Amino acid sequence: MTDPTQDPRFLQDPYPVLAAMRARCPVQPLPTESGGRPAHLVTGYAEARQALADPRLSKDTAAFFAGKESRRRLHPAVAHTMLAGDPPRHTRLRKLVTKAFTAGAVARLRPFIARVTGELLDRWPVGERFDFVSTLAVPLPVIVICRLLGVPSKDRPDVRRWSGELFAAGRPDVIDAASHALADYMTGLVAAKRQDPGDSLLDRLISARDGADRLSEEELVSLAVLLLVAGHETTTNFLGNAVLALLQRPAALDRLRGNPDDIPAVLDELLRFDSPVSTATFRYTTEAITLAGVDIPPGAPVLVALGAANRDPLRFPAPDLLDLDRDATGHLGFGHGIHRCVGASLAMTEAEIALRAVLTRFPGIRLAVPAAQLDWRRTRLVRGLSALPVTV
Length: 392
Hints:
The protein is an alpha+beta fold. The chain is 50% helix and 8% strand. It has helices at residues 8-12, 15-24, 45-53, 61-65, 76-79, 89-98, 103-122, 132-137, 139-149, 156-165, 172-195, 201-209, 217-247, 250-258, 263-273, 306-309, 344-361, and strands at residues 27-30, 39-42, 57-58, 130-131, 283-285, 289-291, 294-296, 301-304, 366-367, 389-391. Strands 1-2-8-5-3 form a five-stranded mixed beta sheet. The chain has a three-stranded antiparallel beta sheet with strand order 4-10-9. Helix 7 (103-122) crosses helix 9 (139-149), helix 10 runs antiparallel to helix 11 (172-195) and helix 13 (217-247) packs parallel to helix 17. The protein is globular, with a radius of gyration of 21 Å. The protein starts with 7 loop residues before the first helix and ends with a strand.
C-alpha cells in the first residue's frame, strides 16, 4: 500500500479520500508491507472521540516497541515524552506544566504577543510578493514559546530548524539526528540555567526537578523539548491554514475585515475546517476493543485522523463548507481526553491576535499564486503549508 501523504494530490486536499474511507467504514485496517499486525485508521468523529478517551488505548511507546528490532535511534527524551506515556506518569508531568497555560497566564502574555506580531508585520514588503509562513506563521509562535521557556534569541533559528526536521516524514535519519540535536541543546540550556537561574517556565521545571516532585533529568529535558516543539508547530500550521482558507473565500474574508471583533468566535471553525494536526500521536490497544463494530486485537496501533473526524457530516453538517456561524467548539483539533493539548488557549490567543492584526493593517492581502501551486509539508502527523506566497 503506497503512502497517500506522499501523493501531491492528497497533500493538496486529503479530505475527499478520507471522506470516501469514512463512508465505507469509520474504522479500517491498513495493510502493512511487512505483513505484520495492521494499524487501524479512525476517520469518524464519534469513533475518534471514543478512541481518544479510551484508557485501553495506551500511548506508552516504550512498552509497545520493547524487544522489537529497530534501526531507529531517536533520543530517549524525544521518544519518551509526556505525550508518549500513560497515567500516573503522564498525570504527574502534565500537572507540572498546566499552570503555565492557564487563562490568566496566557492573558499576561497578550501584550508581548501583540508587540511581536506588530514588529513582524512592520517588516512586510508592501507591493511585493512574500511568504506569510516564514514572515509571521513561523516566527511568532517560535518567539512566544522560546520566551516562555527562556530560550535565548540567538538560538531560535537552530531550534526552529531542528523542530521542523522532527516532522520529516520518510526521512528517519533526519528525524533521529534532529531529536539528538534538540535534546542535547536542551540539556545544555538546563545546565546553563542551573548556573544562572531566571523566571521562565523551564526555570520552574528545574526547581521541580530539584524539589519534591522529583522530575528525572530525562523527564525534564523531555518536557522542555515537547513544549518547545508542540508550542509552535501546531500554531504555525493553524495560522497558515486559516489564512489560506480565508483568502480562498472572499465573503468570509470581507466579513472578518469589516468585523474583526468576530475573529475569536470563528477560530474554532477555522481549526475544524483544516486541522493543523491531521493525525493524533501514536496509540495502541492493550486489550481487544470494538470500534464502530470493528474488532481490534490487542497490540494493534490505532491512528486517529483528527482532520477526517472534524469533517464528519454526522457531527458537522456540510463539513466541507467553512461556515463562520457554525458552533464548532466540539472539534477535535486539539485532541480530546487527558491528552488534549495543554497549550490550546495559547494557540488560540496567538491566532486571534495575529489574524486581527493582519486583517486590520493589511486588508488587501491576497494569494500571490494559484492555490493548486502551493506546497504542503510532507508529513503524516501535521497538516501545514511549506510556504504561502501573498501580496499586500
